[in-house]
Design goal:
Strand 3, helix 6 and strand 4 form a beta-alpha-beta unit. The chain has 25 helices and twelve strands.
Amino acid sequence: MRDASCARSGCSFEADRVGFSKAVHSQVKFAQERKVFMRLQSADDTGAIRHARRSRVHAYPQSPSSHIRTVQTPARKVRPEPGALPGEYAPPDRERRSFVEQPLSTPSPSRGVLLLLPIAAITALAARSFYHGVSADGSWLAYVWTGLFAVLFGWILFGFAKATFGFFARVTRTGASEDVTDDGSALPKTAIAMPIYNEDPCRVFAAIESMAESLENTVHGESFELFILSDTQRPDVHAREEELYQEIRRNPAYGGRIFYRRRIKNLRRKAGNIADFCERWGHRYTYLAVVDADSVLTAHALVALVRRMEREPKLGILQAPNTLAGGASLFARLQQFASSVYGPVFATGQRIWCGADDNYYGHNAVIRMAPFIEHCGLPELPGKPPFGGEILSHDFVEAALMRRGGWEVRMADDLDGSFEEAPPTLSDFLDRDRRWCQGNLQHLRLLFANGLRPMSRVHFASGALSYLAAPLWLLFLVTGIAMSEAHSYAYAWAGQNRSLLALSLCLLFIPKIYGLLLLLGNPRRVDAHGGALCAIASVLFETGVSIVMAPIMMLAHTQHIVGIISGRAVGWKPQQRETQSEGAWRHAWRRYWRATLLGIAASVALWFLTPSLVWWMLPVVGSLVFAIPLVALSNQPRWGGRARNAGLLLVPTETEPPRVLRRFTRIRTAA
């Protein structure tokens, strides 16, 4: 078997059962086959042995090679045999690209930034009106309360504006992308990379096999190669990964286009994993499709993304909107229903608002390989974690660097077929948010980095504010209670202020109405969600549960912020993706007893200090008091199943699942 263009030397190697001879070139970068790697132990070139042990790249051939010889050949593209990793480094006649750390240490307004001006003006008017309602005596609390109101009202108005853009754009079909007709012509070579870290191997390989099979059923199967990029550290999980890889590569249809490699040193986590892949194999591919361990994409979605990239030569990243699927617990089903009904409104609003300055969410997107390597090398931030060190939320930064390099980043909001799984429980959701929270707060250090576009700075600020809003809401409530205690309930919560707060609540819930109206206007989507009555009941149910759960999440996010500010950095842990029905009550008690205690203490304090506010604060303190049963019940698949049997929270991915999801479920169940 010939090795494809090995390490700049132009040499190719064919392996034998006997072992390597002394003619093995000293620039061999890694072993393509496990047998070859084992036989290096008996070779004379000890330098090659040491490097092979460091690289530790596993790939298993389908048939043993017959003899050894070293051949000097001109650089040429060699099709790898099934199961063999393709050529690692670029051949001599092609320059090897390497990631270069981009300096991040001032810059024309774009359309998205200009759209913020009316939002800022309306916020200023609302804040002025709010201040006049509480500033009769010029108390310093009035200034604090008004400042908090201004930030939170502006944040709510910002989300409402995006949803409004999305709603009217979908109704009028403004700026809708014209889907590129697939004429069957050849596509450029595209790598589908799935970075994993101690994930469930059965879930990973079920997703890879279902996507490979979906692509095989098209005429474009040969244009895509799939890579499992493992950073797994647990020996048992690693062994299972290798076992499943040996099984999947035996498939004669697509086994030769699926590859697996494992890094020993997990430098820079997921971003480092992707960078390592791009430097070693990026020269072979025009595009890179990044997927997560919980991602599944249809062949239509993958082909459409690549076709659109081909049509727009300045497009650097094209992000597909993600639809949540596969949830069993009540909490997961609530998330995937919200994703299905409200998600399209916000996705379209994001596209209208951002244009070519959109964002990248780290997975289920297609990236143009050459500019990604040229412009998106991530630096380490000075200082120690949590605010220094490795950039955790690398995707936002990579999108900003791509825009700084002159390449477009867009959202394909009209594209279906991009799926991922929701966290099964509230605790898993909050654990994931803890990592994202630290990464988004790191972005505050990049707000004034050299050369970034204004919209990239807005993305950084809005990402951080999405987490900072939780402690700001808590401070707003506490300040309002203090105002009532220092003055009077009637003074602090005057009719004018109550009207502004009511307006804020309307701005929060109108996007849900947008999503429901668009759903009811599409008969096929209505049927997929269980019918009109079930859809309306599901929206009301989801809204009620989200109101009840909001104070618990507010308190948890506040704890995240306090922990990060106090210097507690998050570790790198695999995400829990399976619903655990056992011990739900015990887990809820262990994790949320403090919230219950705080709710009881707040209720008692309000009763004695400001009894007039008890009924106003009941939704907040009541949620905290009953946090344990609320979390325990929402985490159990039994209640998710009861909701489904009642016709609530139905989504198309379960009533009309696409073939790739059905195949994924069958493979995963049989494993």
